[in-house]
Amino acid sequence: MSDDTKHWRLVKTIAENEQITSVVIAPPEGEAAATAERMRHRKPGQFASLRVMTNTGWSEPHPFTISCDTDSEEVCFTIKKSGEFTASLRDLAPGTPVRCEGPFGTFCADISEHHDVVLIAGGVGITPFLSVLRNFRVHESGHRVTLFWSNRTLADAFAADELAEMTRGLDLVVVHCITREDPPASSTPRVHFEKGRFGRQLLQKYAPNPSAAFYLCGPPAMQEAVLQELSSCGIAPDAVQKEAFVYGGNRGGGDKSGSGSGRKNGASGPAGGGGSAA
Ligand SMILES: Cc1cc2nc3c(=O)[nH]c(=O)nc-3n(C[C@H](O)[C@H](O)[C@H](O)COP(=O)(O)OP(=O)(O)OC[C@H]3O[C@@H](n4cnc5c(N)ncnc54)[C@H](O)[C@@H]3O)c2cc1C
């Protein structure tokens, strides 16, 4: 195994629910800390490429959005179990060496320029918005934010308590769209539970300002459906910034660094996956 001080290392993993694990890593120490300098200048919504040391050497790189605020020295990623790599993360031992490259991407880069913001997330697509909102909380931002978060069940909405807490300090309304079970009644004034998918009626009910800035992160099929709904309210797909968590035509084990296709449209991100550091 290589010199541990040269690499990021795993601080801890947090089981958010059965499927979702947060992974916290700390930067290298001493002179090697220069390698982490770029990460200190990260913006909310950006992602990094992670590799972990295994018994057989370094894993392949995988892209994950940074889910913590941008001020913390330790960096957190919130990751859904999808295949072999993501399933292995929860059991990693503290101290495991990690290679972390980034930050990459431009999703949400302009978000602080907009006073009225609508965030629409599907499942683990909440991660860039967690970073945005955690940042807003740290900086006591006055942005008006409406967050629509779609999940199958309330148990899938792993950050629901933290988001509810945020509505007390931020100008934030959270709308949970629960698709596979009856949602509970809300006990928090600016947290709402709706049965079913996001649609124009919910938009008109909770975020009727069409000149708000729209950001969307979720699986491709969900994005398509959401864009149609937005379109029916006069919001053009091109006016919506998007992130899809998909990459590459090469699913056969090639590049998983996030440099394939499927990154956002709109602003100046590198084609597919945002492979350039900001
Ligand atoms: C810019 C970016 C940011 C991301 N941020 C996050 C994040 O914050 N949290 C998170 O949980 N995930 C995120 N992802 C997705 C994450 O990179 C993948 O889920 C992970 O690399 C899958 O690794 P694996 O080996 O566990 O699964 P694999 O074994 O690679 O895949 C398991 C199965 O799912 C399919 N699959 C998995 N991931 C993808 C994908 N991204 N595109 C297309 N098919 C896929 C595979 O074809 C296979 O069938 C992000 C992806 C990108 C491009």
Provide a concise account of the structure shown.
The protein has 278 residues and is α/β, with parallel strands linked by helices. 18% of the residues lie in helices and 29% in strands.
Description:
- This protein has 278 residues and is an alpha/beta fold.
- The chain has two domains: 4-104, Beta Barrel (Elongation Factor Tu (Ef-tu), domain 3); 111-243, Rossmann fold, CATH 3.40.50.
- The protein is 18% helix and 29% strand.
- It contains six helices and 13 strands.
- The strands form two sheets. Strands 1, 2, 3, 4, 5, 6 and 7 form a seven-stranded antiparallel beta sheet that branches. Strands 11-10-9-8-12-13 form a six-stranded parallel beta sheet, sandwiched between helices.
- The longest helix has 13 residues, at 220-232.
- It is globular and about 50 Å long.
- The two termini are 31 Å apart.
- 42% of the residues are buried.
- Bound molecules: flavin-adenine dinucleotide.
